[in-house]
Amino acid sequence: MYVNRRQLLIAGGGLGAATLVGCSSRGGGAPAPQSTGGSPKRGGTLRVGALGRAGAITRDPHGTQSNESDYLVLSLVFDTLTVPAGKPNTAPRLAASWEAGPDLRTWRFKIAPGALFHDGGPVTAADVVWSLRRLRNTKSGASRLPGVQADNITADGDGTVVLVSDYPNAELPLLTRLSSFVLKKDTPDNALDKAPGTGPFKLDWYRNGNARLVRNEKWYGGEVLLDAVEITMFETAQAMSNAILAGQIDLASNVGPVAARTAETRKDLRVVRRADDMAMPIVMRAKDGPFADPRVREALRLVVDRDAMVKQVLSGYGTVANDIMGTGDPRYARDIPQRVRNLARAGQLLTEANFDLGKTYDLITTEDIAGLAESATLFANHAREAGIRINVVKQESGKFWDETWQKGTLYTTYWGTNDSVLFLGSKLMVGDAGQNEARFADPAFDDAYRRAVGAADEAGRAAALVEVQKIQHERSGYLLWGMADGIDVATAKVQGLPTLAGYGRVQLQSTWLR
Question: Which residue, among 370, 313, 326, 320, has the nearest Cα to 488 in the 3D structure?
Answer without folding.
Answer: 370
